């Protein structure tokens, strides 16, 4: 611990002078990077619009209130589609994520050198690309509609589910697996009785967690044409029907809050 | 003992995940009914899908020969703008998140402050980034400022919630020891609370930087700056080789960030 001698008294210091210098330089670099970024953002901003923002926000608010309540009759089908996109997408992604997770986990992968990196690559690449981009891509391939939304959500969720699942597989208690192996069980029996029961709670938790996230994501998929309530949102925005926009936003908010509540309840029941 | 006696001689069966039989069967039947209903509503135009497969093949093949050069200046500018938005919004978002997290931790903050901070977190978490971006673009005009504000706002909900949970589960003994030495509130936070949550804060910040970068890639779809606009144009023009190049860059940067955050987290913990 660095101690400074000040007029005969020893004073405790957190860092040595070399450490504090390094610290200071790091902060300086950080601040410089931030200043550069801010300058760039500021350069490509029309500040006239920004100063006008409070007025515009107020204007939008007066136009959007009160919401057009009678429009809600037309939102039943889109919200049902949104729910289906999220649920079916989650189910398909779980079916695809399980084998990927087993191939990616250090203790169950058949080959650490070849197959594990491929599985990890699948996980990273599906995770790093947003579901909206997947939807754009799928619409170009299979045409607009709910089906493209389901597949987009499914692909996007593989990485997330597989990552959490393979971490759960790597954390299992090996002694149980050994006990099953010692009874002379085959590879599949070891899997079914030694590994699967241990990761089942994690699996269920991941499924519900991802379903909750997918409800959020599927509400906006319609913006690019992949079905669900986002379709209504984008068409209302295009014709500047603000009272409808505010109603749709309220419906989306309600759906998100309800799905979060359901997922918290279910997770509480499982874990 | 009688329970054991009745069980002796019976073959062992794997216990069910849900113990009550009626609940189990009700759930299974309900799930099947729902899946059928959901499946019925999805109309798949198989001939359209069949036509699209050709384009799908072209897209997959584009990954083997991504085109970085034709639109290199667009890609470079878009990427730079995405990175700038990511860095600036992460810094601002994290700076705002820390006081809100302190306010949202029940063991540090008084009840009124706690309720206000918790509701800020709830609002930020409930609103999807894209929806926030649409509203902010309408208010502030096109450009990276709207994207920067969107990502900063989304960062608050994520980081404050997780950080507040960490502060709530900290070790009270250490914090009390600082208090007992006669520390002021700010000193108490600085020496009693902050060192305990610092590793978690750094880890979460790195993770959020990663998320913000991924999100910044789509904000361009609604006009809020970043690489998304270039990507959208590439899709619209069916320039799959350019789109593949952009997606590959995104994947590479996310992988690099993930590796970097792994290194940093290993060092601070």
UniProtKB/TrEMBL annotation, chain A:
> Where is the protein situated, by its record's location annotation?
Cell membrane
The principal location of this protein is membrane
* Molecular-function GO terms, alphabetical: ABC-type phosphonate transporter activity
GO CC aspect terms: plasma membrane
Stored PROSITE patterns: ABC_TM1
Query: Which interval of the chain is the signal sequence?
Result: none
**Which species does this protein come from?**
Sulfitobacter noctilucicola
**Pfam families in the record:** BPD_transp_1 (PF00528)
Indicate what this protein is called per its UniProt record. Phosphonate transport system permease protein
Q: Give the family from UniProt.
A: Belongs to the binding-protein-dependent transport system permease family.
Q: Which membrane topology term applies here? A: Multi-pass membrane protein
In this protein, which residues make up the domain named ABC transmembrane type-1? 79-263
Membrane-spanning residues where? 21-41, 85-105, 132-155, 190-209, 221-241, 247-264
Keywords of the record:
Cell membrane, Membrane, Transmembrane, Transmembrane helix, Transport
Automatic annotation (TrEMBL), chain B:
Task: Report the principal subcellular site.
Answer: membrane
Which organism is the protein's source?
A: Sulfitobacter noctilucicola
In the bilayer, the protein is annotated as:
Multi-pass membrane protein
- The answer to whether keyword Membrane applies is yes
The name on file for this protein is Phosphonate transport system permease protein
Q: Name one GO molecular function term.
A: ABC-type phosphonate transporter activity
Recorded hits in SUPFAM superfamilies, A to Z, give: MetI-like
Q: Where in the cell?
A: Cell membrane
Q: Which InterPro entries match?
A: MetI-like, MetI-like_sf, PhnE/PtxC
What keyword terms does UniProt attach to this protein? Cell membrane, Membrane, Transmembrane, Transmembrane helix, Transport
Q: Say which family it is in.
A: Belongs to the binding-protein-dependent transport system permease family.
Q: Which residues form the ABC transmembrane type-1 domain?
A: 79-261
Give the residue spans that cross the bilayer: 22-42, 83-103, 115-139, 241-260
> What's in the GO CC field?
plasma membrane
């Amino acid at each position: 611990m660095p101690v400074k001698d000040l007029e005969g008294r020893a004073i405790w210091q957190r860092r040595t002078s070399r450490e504090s210098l390094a610290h200071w330089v790091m902060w300086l670099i950080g601040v410089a990077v931030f200043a550069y970024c801010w300058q760039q953002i500021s350069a490509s901003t029309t500040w006239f619009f920004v100063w006008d923002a409070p007025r515009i926000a107020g204007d939008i608010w007066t136009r959007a209130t009160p919401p057009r309540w009678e429009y809600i009759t037309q939102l039943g089908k889109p919200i049902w589609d949104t729910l289906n996109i999220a649920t079916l997408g989650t189910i398909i992604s779980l079916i695809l994520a399980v084998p990927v997770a087993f191939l990616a986990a250090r203790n169950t992968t058949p080959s650490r050198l070849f197959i594990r990196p491929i599985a990890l690559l699948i996980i990273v690449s599906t995770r790093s690309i947003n579901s909206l981009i997947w939807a754009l891509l799928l619409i170009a391939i299979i045409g607009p509609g709910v089906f493209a939304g389901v597949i987009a959500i499914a692909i996007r969720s593989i990485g997330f589910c597989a990552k959490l699942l393979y971490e759960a597989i790597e954390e299992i208690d090996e002694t149980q697996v050994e006990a099953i192996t010692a009874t002379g069980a085959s590879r599949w029996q070891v899997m079914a009785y030694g590994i699967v029961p241990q990761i089942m709670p994690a699996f269920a938790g991941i499924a519900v967690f991802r379903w909750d996230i997918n409800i959020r994501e599927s509400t906006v998929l319609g913006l690019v044409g992949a079905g669900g309530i986002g379709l209504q949102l984008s068409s209302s925005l295009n014709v500047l029907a603000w009272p409808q926009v505010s109603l749709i936003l309220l419906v989306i908010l309600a759906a998100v809050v309800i799905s979060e509540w359901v997922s918290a309840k279910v997770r509480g029941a499982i874990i | 003992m009688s329970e054991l006696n009745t069980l002796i001689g019976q073959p062992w069966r794997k216990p069910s995940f849900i113990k009550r039989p009626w609940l189990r069967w009700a759930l299974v039947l309900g799930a099947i009914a729902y899946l059928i209903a959901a499946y019925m509503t999805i109309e798949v135009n198989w001939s359209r899908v069949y036509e699209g497969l050709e384009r799908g093949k072209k897209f997959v093949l584009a990954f083997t020969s991504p085109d970085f050069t034709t639109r290199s200046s667009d890609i470079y500018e878009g990427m730079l703008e995405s990175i700038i938005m990511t860095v600036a919004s992460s810094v601002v978002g994290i700076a705002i998140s820390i006081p809100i997290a302190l306010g949202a931790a029940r063991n540090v903050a008084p009840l009124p402050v706690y309720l206000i901070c918790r509701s800020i977190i709830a609002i930020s978490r409930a609103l999807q980034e894209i929806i926030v971006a649409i509203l902010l673009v309408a208010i502030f005009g096109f450009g990276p400022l709207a994207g920067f504000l969107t990502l900063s706002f989304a960062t608050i909900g994520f980081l404050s919630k997780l950080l507040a949970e960490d502060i709530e589960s900290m070790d009270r003994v250490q914090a009390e020891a600082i208090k007992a030495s006669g520390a002021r509130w700010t000193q108490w936070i600085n020496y009693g609370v902050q060192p305990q949550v610092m590793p978690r804060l750094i880890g979460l910040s790195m993770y959020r930087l990663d998320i913000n970068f991924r999100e910044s890639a789509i904000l361009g779809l609604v006009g809020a700056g970043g690489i998304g606009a270039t990507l959208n144009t590439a899709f619209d023009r069916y320039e799959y080789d350019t789109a593949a190049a952009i997606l590959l860059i995104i994947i590479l940067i996310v992988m690099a960030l993930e590796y970097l955050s792994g290194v940093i987290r290993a060092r601070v913990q």
